[in-house]
C-alpha cells in the first residue's frame, strides 16, 4: 500500500468502503509497516507535472476549514526539484495570502494536477514551506524559469508525502488554446499533404475519391 493510501484511507473511510462493498472485510485493517515511507516521484509523475500549466492547491486554516485555490503559469512553473520535492516562485496576486497564512499554522497541503484533454489526474499530499527570496538566491534561480509572470514575493517548497493517479471516470474533456492550436497545426499539415497528393495525381491523370 502506498503512503497516499495510508493517509487517505482513514478508519472512517475504510469503514465506509466495507459498508459499500469496495473493500473486503479482511482488508479493513492496515498493516503496521505499510505506507510509512513517502512515495517517491517517478519519471511519469515528473513529466506530467512539468507539462502542466496549473494546479489546484488545498490548505487548512485555523478554523479547520479547507481552502482551495488555483495556481497557474507557463507549463512547468511547478518544478520537480527531486523525487520528493516540488517548488514554485510565488508571485503577487490579490494579496489575501490565505494559502501562505494557512501553511504557517498547518503545513499540510493537497494538490491536483489535471490534464483534461486526456482525462488524467494526479493527486498529491505534501508539506508546504515558504522561503524568503532574498535569503535563497540559488533556489530563486532554480524556480525562475519557467515561472508565473509578476513580482516574486516568496518561494514555496512542497515535500511530497504521497500521490495517486485517478481513473478518468467523470473527468470532462476540455482543451486549452495550446491543445487546439496543436490540432489546427495537424489539420493544416494533413490538408496540405492532401492537396499535394491531389496535384500529383491530377498530373498523372488520376483523382482521389471524394
UniProtKB/TrEMBL annotation:
Residues making up the signal peptide according to the UniProt record: none
Domain Pyridoxamine 5'-phosphate oxidase N-terminal: 44-139
Gene3D superfamilies found in the cross-reference section: Electron Transport, Fmn-binding Protein, Chain A
Name of the protein described by the UniProt record: Pyridoxamine 5'-phosphate oxidase N-terminal domain-containing protein
InterPro entries attached to this UniProt entry: Pyridox_Oxase_N, Split_barrel_FMN-bd
Coiled-coil parts of chain: 180-207
SUPFAM superfamilies, per the entry: FMN-binding split barrel
Superkingdom of origin: Bacteria
Classification via Pfam families: PNPOx_N (PF01243)
UniProt keyword annotations, A-Z: Coiled coil
